[in-house]
User: Fold this.
Amino acid sequence: MSGVATHCPYCALQCGMTLREVAQARTNGAVRASVTTPDTSTRPDRSRLGPSVEIQPRPSGSNRGGLCRKGWTAAELLTTPDRLTTPLIRSRRTDSLQPTTWDAALSFVATRLRTLQSEHGRDAVAVLGGGGLTNEKAYALGKFARVVLRTKNIDYNGRFCMSSAAAAGIKAFGLDRGLPFPLSDIADADAILLVGANVAETMPPFGQYLTAQRERGGALVVVDPRATETARQARLHLQVTPGTDLALALGLLHIVIMEGYVDQAYVARRTTGFDAIRPTVASYWPERVERITGVSVAQQREAVRLLAEADRALILTARGAEQHAKGVDTVSAFINLALALGLPGTPGRGYGCLTGQGNGQGGREHGQKADQLPGYRMIDDPAARAHVAAVWRVDPATIPGKGPSAYELMDSLGAPDGPKALLVFGTNPVVSAPAAGRVEGRLRSLDLLVVSDLVLSETAALADVVLPTAQWAEEDGTMTNLEGRVIRRRRLRMPPQDVRTDLEILAGLAARLGAPGAISADPEATFAELARASAGGAADYGGISYSRLDAEDGIFWPCPTPRHPGTPRMFLDRFATPDGRARFVPVEFRPVVEDVDADYPVYLTTGRMLAHYQSGAQTRRIKALAEAAPQAYVELHPDLAEQYGIGEGDLVRVTSRRGTVTAPARLTETIRTDTVFLPFHWGGRGRANSLTNPALDPTSRMPEFKVCAVRLERVVADPAAGTRHEELEVTA
Amino acid sequence: MSVVVVGNGMAGARFAVELRAREPRRPLVVFGAEPGRAYNRILLSNLLAGKADEQDLLLPEPQGAFDLRTGVEVVAVDPVAKTVVASDGSRTRFDVLVLATGSRAVVPPIEGLWKDRSIDSLVDGAETFRTLADCRRILAAAERARRAVVVGGGLLGIEAARGLAKRGLEVEVVHARSHLMERQIDVEASRILVETLAGLGVRVRLDAVTSEVVGTRRVEGIRLEDGTEIPADLLVIACGVRPNPDLAAAAGLTVNRGIVVDDEMRTSDPDIFAIGDCAEHRGTVYGLVAPAWEQARVAAEVISGVQGARYEGSRLVTRLKAPGVELATMGDPSLVGDATDSRTEVVTFADPARRTYQKVMIRDRRLVAAILLGDVPMVGALTQIFDRQVPVPSDPRRLLFGHSMTGDRNEAAVDAMPAAMTLCRCNGVTAGAIARAWLAGARTAQEVAARTHASTGCGSCRDLIEGYLDALAADPNPAEEPVTEGVVA
Assistant:
């Protein structure tokens, strides 16, 4: 059997892999799936989920044949013992979820949605999508909300990931594609400034490009409050104070100007607005920036020297810089720096944003965002509405307007004027939303919560109806990776009986809601419609088809016609602004929304671990990954730990104005002495997002995930109260 | 409710921006005695060094239209009639007045320095270093000059000297005291600073009191009290600044060294505020930009009605802005001398050969003062520890040296790796697991990868694994512990 060529289900690198079914777990040989798969004898019901699947890496576009342990073990989830294999329903919240039939489940949901909409209006139903959904699903979800439900209330978890970089990219370049150049440029760069990215944990095979870059003699500068595994590979690590990246960017640009490093010819020819930003930048001299950021003047100067004297320089940002209530301005400041150095739109140089979720790029282009229609069209643009309405064969006037952003939407659930029902696809907000305790309360206040998921995630556990959905190896579709490269996800086998794809679920609901045929259950047909809907838009997929994707190693958008080769490098001739020039955007530093004070004297920042993906609903169920990283922990510096009498492994209670987390301490000198770090992959008492601040960026509505103020206490072991490590949430 | 600001310097211009950010339509008049737009005085030394041009010094302007009157000096304030009288004869009414009259250069009584004392005019070739106009004149003179003497070895004098040296002049700093920057640093730091400056082409002469300017029509040099003559064709006077409270004093406001203000930045007249170098808050005149900007923000908040806006003083951090010289000082200058009180712990590290000197003073586990000279990677962290007054580590050496960020990387020798040591992070593969693969027949990195997935992620461990395989070939069981578990992750 030759196997099926597809890509990893997890991050935006979308590593190529080949899947094969194996009749039985082998005990030796090349593939060690057997080692990582739980013993079948204790799990008698696994066989109905189908034979085990083995994975081999496959060089494809982005991964050069690499896989991390998440990729190697991804197939284990196909046969995870607690996989959902039948719809679940309960008529009262106090009841437990009971198995039911698809027809009963979908009919119940449709009836309830109709009732709630007739009682409270169309906007009484809300939809929440995810950046891991295929392009087809993201598109169908947006269409389902606008055409079938006709609600304005749809947004997605990418609001928590990509929205700040997207907004800043649009401001500067007129268009947002995470990386406007192929990954191979990273290996060829002479200098890279990597801001708030820990790729060694979040997308390990990306490290191949950094290794190649280093071996060529290139310099890597990493900005991070922690000396992460990525930072420790850097020539220079700027250990910035959480929430001050914006001041650092302004300071670096100040030095660029003072040292005469501005690419004057480029600025004159390809940009507008430079003179307008100079007075702001003049106020960020290095000594002032040192006091704000904690990054020494000497290090600031060295960072600028490395970047400015490099022939090919890249500036890359990620969530560390973006997940702030000033995330857009922070990215704008780094783009300003890139523009002053003449980087964007020049071969081998540029600015880019590292997308996180598997389809974080495509997921933000095809209409599951509150303010957008497919093709990265804006929903308040009459021409965009007319174009999409024609594809959808509806009256443009029936397409609802702009809805609230993800956090605002969730915070309005169950409120007197808020939605009464929520449909959730591909996201787990009980773990991943900011101020998650509050969000959990809002979800509980709904009249109807419907969740489509593979397993009973923390969010699904609260639902009235749970719809078991197919996994990546059981469906066809397309993803758009961090480079803007559209790639094929291919089906290895059918889902287990009584498990449906999200497209089938949406099509089934549409039929029951009086709109049969509005949603196709067929991915290829959906993609063809998506391509037509996106045609002429910023993210133009008009010339892309499954047959082309099968023949080529992915296609970079924009690709407007079937003969168009796609666009690996953007902006070489002009930017997507009306005058073709990139725009400098004036920005000022402002402090974090919640600064440390006497009551909450320590910064909290959050992030990822190599072994887990997002809310952990998938990776926590994979044995090798759960063993490698079984529970949340509080990372802190020995100097800080000393103040509280905290030793390695002690239980620590971390409290913010929004909640409390209890987790064991992990002491390391790689973190700043004023900051603690929590990984965010767990629910329960280790849920990092119980603490985080939902203050939003005024433009992108991105929450301030990456910094808030907390206090620490050592939990004194009290056997009577039963406070033991084992009681901490270990899995779901 | 119109607001009139006297002074368009660092404090006044900042106040105007802060006010308009809160109240975009509030009528606003700003008087600036100097001609031209507000500029960033902090960057004058960059202009002197040729690193910046005047365009680079411009400060942001407030939002919206406002009445900016530059080159016009306010000569009188009438708090009763609520008007200011300007040098152009105009009278302007105010509801709220903000005095940001700044400070002026101190000019010591040196024989022959004045051309015409009555109009504050120095002899040709002698300049103070305070304003953009001063800076332009110094630059013009530097074009023709070869040798410059800077009188005054404080922050400003050293920055000016460094700038002129960068332009290729021979520069000597003449300082009346026994060490440089005596209000901020100690003798030991000064000694190292003198060395550092020498390396940058700036000579320093200490204990040297300038008594006379030598020259007939223009500066040809200076004579010291001990009779020594130093030839120079450019003389820069950088002997510090003194607050400029004259307008306020003449208007009958309470004035001590500066214009006395309360925590809302109000003077003794509640409708008149004072901010920046001219203001004296709780007995302190700061003369630094960070406090001035904080005061500007508080005054703007108070005037626009923000409840509870208060200025409670600033923590003193000074940072020399002279490329090639890294010097930061923090805290009470009087402490940073000979600390005699037993409550204060003083920790010093001096490495004159590397021109590095660090001194921290700790009281009650708080950092109360510091001198950091030279290559001190901890300078940013220490500044923040000082600013926030968080407890310092019990071992103060950590304050001086931090810690090695790379110390805990995998650095065991390949022939002595513990079995539990992770060699491939991406796939969580330990030395033990690789040894097991070796025992099972894997001989190359590729064969090991096929069995363990090691090196299939970022690939950066491949060299390490190849080295380990070589060690295994030499000794099939090199792991420190018996290879029993070590399951493939």
Q: What stands out?
A: Chain A touches chain B through 66 residues (CB under 8 Å). Residues 25-44, 722-732 of chain A have pLDDT under 50 and may be disordered. The longest strand of chain A covers residues 660-667.
